[in-house]
Design goal:
The structure holds two protein chains of two kinds. Chain A is built from six helices and no strands. Chain A is mainly α. In chain A, α3 runs antiparallel to α6 and α4 runs antiparallel to α5. Chain B starts with a helix and ends with a helix. Classes of the chains: A mainly alpha, B mainly alpha. Chains A and B meet through α4 and α5 of A and α6, α7 and α8 of B.
């Protein structure tokens, strides 16, 4: 049953991606104002949703690690693997968001970037999780997981504050001209369907990559444990 | 103040008084940053009023990082940190004492830097100058509280001096925004700084509480 799922899920995912591509590029009509360039939304919005969801997974993993690291070390390792996998894959999807966004903005609004609440928060989120990955790389030893988990919590605490403070900043600045946000007017149902199909497709792809990364991390942990055991026994 | 907190604080202040490492390097670094910004942005007239707040805050930020790095390094030498961990006193008191000590050092640097700043940028305070005495300490506390915590996080990494600014600055961004916006509003007299002051107070309370709660976890991380 498990083997069947392992083969079936990627296959379904790839089919969904092909279907989503077809929907996005061929079925959905051009936007009345933006024309063809509008189609980048089918990659931008799903990537953003996946990134935020996976950062949430990472946060839950970190909290789980801190909560169980003394009482149930095996479960703590599982939680930590999810924390790392979620952060890494989340950073990749967030990078996609930060690249597709300016590409779209340049054509749709005439500007590459603006420091409004949403863009700045997404950028700061990216910075926080990249710094989390850097800490994991640079910190050595068994405490690294605990330290990284603490940083993850700090980062998650910071994100709503960044969003709020930027909203205040933006209202005091002259607001940039927005050509209507992506959720402010999808009147055509074919567009909505295309977006939903792409959401599903990219979520499945994201979960597929996340589960692969999780498995790799679990293997790393197991090898590290085996090495530690061998080092202990050979020292006797 | 409890005796343990006072002991830690007195120790840090006494060490600093004897060597004056942190304050000297911070002062010089902050001055250098101010000069660098002046050369990069050519502050003249009204433009100087606009950017002075930002330059002061960024100079404080860079200067504090250099002091924060070696604050914990001192404890690592001679296994002092291990001795601290074995002591029955709570780690939160050690943390708070370090934050207070660093806060005093950075404030001394800011006070020493202020006349230099006023002169170099030809500043005159258009708004309520006394509010600066509220805004700058609030922003500095945010920087120092988070910075001391993350310095303790980074101390066990192999790139600790480099890692501290990398993990501190993203999380410090909203406090930096608040500090700069409030200072600029006070200096130029345009806009209302009270919103930013409230945000800084909220930020300080939230992050100081979380740091105090989580410091034990970091301190005894094994």
């Amino acid at each position: 049953m498990k083997k069947a799922a392992i083969v079936l899920f990627p296959a379904v995912t790839i089919l969904l991606m092909i279907w989503g591509y077809y929907q996005a590029i061929y079925v959905a009509p051009d936007d009345a104002m933006q024309g063809y360039i509008f189609r980048i939304i089918y990659y931008h919005v799903p990537s953003a949703s996946v990134a935020f969801a996976f950062f949430a997974v990472s946060l839950v993993g970190s909290i789980g690690y801190l909560a169980t690291r003394r009482s149930n070390p095996a479960r703590a390792q599982v939680a930590d693997a999810w924390a790392l996998a979620g952060a890494e894959v989340g950073v990749v999807f967030n990078t996609v968001v930060l690249t597709t966004g300016p590409l779209w903005g340049r054509r749709a609004w005439g500007i590459w970037w603006t420091w409004d609440a949403r863009l700045t928060t997404t950028l700061v989120l990216w910075l926080i999780y990249v710094s989390y990955l850097l800490l994991r790389r640079f910190a050595a030893g068994p405490q690294m997981q605990t330290l990284a988990a603490v940083l993850n919590i700090f980062g998650a605490l910071d994100v709503p504050i960044v969003y709020m403070s930027n909203r205040w900043w933006r209202t005091q600045h002259p607001a940039p001209v927005f050509g209507g946000g992506p959720d402010s007017g999808m009147k055509d149902p074919t567009m909505v369907h295309a977006l939903l199909w792409n959401m599903l497709a990219w979520f499945c792809w994201g979960v597929f990559v996340l589960s692969l990364r999780y498995r790799v991390e679990r293997q790393h942990q197991k090898y590290a444990e085996i090495e530690a055991q061998e080092a202990l026994t050979s020292a006797n | 103040m409890t005796p343990v907190l006072f002991t830690h604080l007195a120790k840090d202040l006494r060490i600093e008084w004897r060597s004056k490492d942190a304050i000297n390097s911070m002062l010089f670094f902050a001055l250098l940053v101010v000069v660098l910004f002046s050369i990069s942005f050519d502050p003249r007239g009204a433009f100087a009023q606009q950017i002075a707040g930002g330059v002061l805050c960024v100079a404080t930020m860079f200067a504090s990082v250099s002091a924060l790095n070696q604050a914990w390094a001192r404890e690592i030498r001679h296994q002092v940190l291990d001795a601290q961990r074995m002591a029955p006193a709570s780690g939160a008191q050690l943390f708070l004492a370090k934050v207070l000590a660093n806060f005093i050092f950075v404030t001394i640097v800011q006070i020493a830097l202020a006349p230099v700043f006023l002169v170099m940028y030809n500043l005159h305070v258009a708004g309520n100058a006394w509010l600066l005495a509220l805004v700058l300490p609030l922003g500095t506390w945010a920087l120092v509280a988070n910075g001391t915590f993350f310095a303790a996080l980074a101390i066990r990494s192999r790139n600790r001096e480099l890692l501290l600014p990398l993990i501190l600055f993203p999380i410090f961004l909203p406090a930096l925004l608040g500090m700069v916006q409030a200072t600029t509003a006070i200096l130029t007299g345009e806009g209302d700084p009270s919103l930013w002051i409230k945000m800084l107070v909220g930020y300080d309370i939230i992050f100081t509480t979380v740091s105090l709660l989580l410091f034990e976890v970091v301190f005894h991380a094994e």
